[in-house]
Amino acid sequence: MKFKRALVLLLFIIGCARQGAITSFERKPLPSFDLPTVDEVRLDNGLTCFLLEDHSLPIVNVQVITRAGSIFEDPHQAGLAELTGRLMRTGGTGSFTATAFDQEIDTYGFQLSHDVGREASVAHLKALSSELEKALSLMMEMLFAPRFDVQRLAIARDKLLEDLRRENDEPARVADRTFTMLVYGEQSPWASRPTPQSLKSLRAADLRQFHSRYFVPQNMILAVAGDFQRDDVQRLLIQMLRGVQNDPVQFTSLAPVRHAFAAEEQLIRRPLTQSYIRMGHLGIKRDNPDKFAITVMNHILGASDFKSRLMEDIRTKRGLAYGISSNFSAGLDYGLFEVQVATKAASTALVVKLIRDHLEAMARGEGVAEEEVAFARRTILSRQIFLFDQPFEIVSRRALYRFMGYPDDYWLISQRKIQEVDVADVKRVAQQYLHPAALKLVIVGPNNNGNH
Amino acid sequence: MIRHFIFPFFIIFITAFFPPELLSFDLKSQVKSFALSNGMRWLIVERSQAPVFSGVVMVRVGSAEEEKGKTGLAHMFEHMALKGSSHLGTRNFKKEEPLLHQLNELGRELTELSRQKADAAVQQERQARMKEVQKQIAAFQVPNEVWDVMLRNGGDDLNAFTSKDVTAFHASMPAERFELWAYVFAELISDPVLRDFYTERDVVAEELRLSVENDPDGKLAETLLNTAYADGPYQWSTIGLKEDVISLNHADALAFHRRHYVAVNMVGVLVGDVHAAHARPILERYFGRIPKGAPSPDPVPSVGRGGEERTIALDAEPAWVAAFHIPTFPDGEVYSIEAVISLLCDGASSRLEKKLIVEKRVAREVSCSSGFPGSRLPHLAYIWVEPLQGKSGTAIKRIVLDELKMLQRQKIPAIELESVKKREQAHFVYAMEHNKGLATTLGSFEAIFGEWELVADYVDKISAVTAEDIKRVAEKYFVPENMVLVERVKGNGE
């Protein structure tokens, strides 16, 4: 008896020693971090600027967000925003032919890109600080004085057509776009996709019109971080933007997304050895106060690397996938809730069933307990520092908050809100916002066995 | 476009060409290097702009160390390393271990039976017994505890990768959690316990499907390797052949670890808010116990095949790739070769982008890289072209060869050479921005070539390249006799 007790005690101590090692490393709480102060300046022309000096490396990063994207297109001109955005970058400017512009960029090793999304276009510049003035002038030319060279338009159009064609070679992308269209409806501005017809109908005049309508300083937010002097950059911007056209923007009104949920399937047959599966429905709007609880709920369900329910079951326990994740987005209009996975063809039906089971269980609040919720909160919050580990991330996040209409200290607010999410909240939002009986299901794969 | 194949070559260098006030970014002086008592090397770059650091551990072993019939083992092992140790991932290793042994032996038997296409009933019996043991063992395991511990302490980008040359493990963490990072990573590297081996093998099979079987570019890359090499360590892709991967067993993985995961084969790099004086004793405490071992010798490189052409047909849009056999460090030619690649592909005004996309309008995209599939051994530099619809591989080949001939016949103008150098200098500075990127690059050069200083010297070296050098390497390497060409056309069949 005594011996056994001693043994139990010994084992307990050995067990504890292991835990003890880790616990001792965790004893010091992670400190809260203070962000450096970001300067905000609003130029007379309405351009909002966020500036953060950091002289540790001789680099400057500049980003400009414009409220201009594909949701503002006329449906028969699908691709107009994308093509305009691309040609601003490749079609030359007031001062430079397209070829000369390319040469300037390459000679100095600048990185200048322009990406167009649904709601916004984002221009990004990276340059050595010794060449800041030249780099900035090229960026401003791109934004405000694009040439829309006709030959480069033809090249850009051909490229975009080829991009669309090649998207079909990537089953994951086929699955993504099919899912988006299934949830929103093909006509929705949130699901529209250029077609060869819509692209071929676009002329340089259309691009010019789109550009002059949306790409004006008062419709933009600029963020700059790195090795510069605040006064210099301000002076340069004022100088470079002198005389730039700046009419207030008339935004297209958007067809609202119909808030409806109904089960539907689309199966696309491809001769692959895996099925690419997407399951889900509409998400929420950006201004929904439940979004913090939903973030925690979704983290538990499918967003935590390796520790989410979906990942632990479908990858770790059963070896059925290389990756599985869920995403619950909050948009300008309703976002998307989407589970994504690829699995060998023979496991398709099983994986679809398992996902359904997990969604049903989560919607019922099954197994949602303090440990799981606390782990999710802790993970989300303890890695927040990485959203701000570079000066450029700090300043571009400020710009993003402003673009979305959030307060400047949104990150602090969201920290607090996440910390407040409890088991009851997670159960409530799971029950209210998950619709396991009304899932849209897309499978791109070799056979039609799916969801039975 | 320059496509970076795991380890970008031409980044990171500095000094002479920067104005004086920037000489404080002399990378050499920023790197603190030392070895532990067991020979494991460490590099530390202290920078405390944010209270975080990136920690990378690189082992000088990769897919090149594999043997035919067991390809994909290095990558398989990398997957296993994150399953924990005898301390992490278990509630009671004493109870778990015998069950794990049982489970793994059953898995090995089942693998063998499956390979021999044994009777279904026999296989099912093994599967049933495995399920039984899995049920028992679950009581003693903490699945993904490594993730648990790292994630709840702010771990970001916890990941690992395998290449032909190295296996790397990484995580970024808040500065306060440095000791935790050291503890966890030392556990994974020194004492991996192969939990869920046979389940994880299924995961790797899914990854293989994702990245090769159902990815036309993955297939093209694999074909390129098979064509460029008749044999030898660079012939197969890192992920391995499917028939090999699904036959790997846990004993293979254990033997692999024992042979290669020794201190002299390892390099650790820390970049960020860490201090060498504070870190060193901690590193010694956790990593110092790894056995010293003997360095793994390099496999014998095969003679590459030149003048080879091949076509594959897939149900996908066409692609075209031309690859050239090139030497590697410490051969001084590498810098001139990098300059040629930059001239050909780096930027919209580069020779090939300009010709193929703007002037002749035959391509959607052009990308080039060296370091394919690895850089430890003589390897390949490739030019990868995606044709526009209706444009033939023949036309592309003619244009590319013409451009190469131009480089061989005419020295490039000084202004173009200057442009290459300026660009490379800029790229170097950009590469210093992110802790993880800098750590990975320093680690790669030290692990692969034993000389992280190559990174710091790169700018000087590339700045010394002359127009004559470029002409010379163009004549020597970028010629049809040294070229392997693979075209992917649209059609049926594998």
Give a structural overview.
The complex is a heterodimer of chains A (452) and B (494). By secondary structure, chain A is an alpha+beta fold. Chain A has helices spanning 2-26, 80-90, 98-108, 132-144, 150-167, 171-184, 196-200, 204-214, 230-240, 291-303, 309-317, 348-363, 370-382, 391-404, 410-420, 423-433, and strands spanning 39-42, 48-53, 59-66, 111-116, 121-128, 220-226, 264-269, 274-282, 284-285, 324-328, 330-331, 336-344, 440-445. The longest helix of chain A has 25 residues, at 2-26. The N and C termini of chain A lie far apart (57 Å). Chain B is an alpha+beta fold and 494 residues long. In chain B, the strands form two sheets. Chain B has a six-stranded mixed β-sheet with strand order 1-2-6-3-5-4, with helices on both faces. A five-stranded mixed β-sheet of chain B has the order 7-11-8-10-9, sandwiched between helices. The longest helix of chain B is centred in the first third of the chain and has 23 residues, at 93-115. In chain B, strand 4 and strand 5 form a beta hairpin.
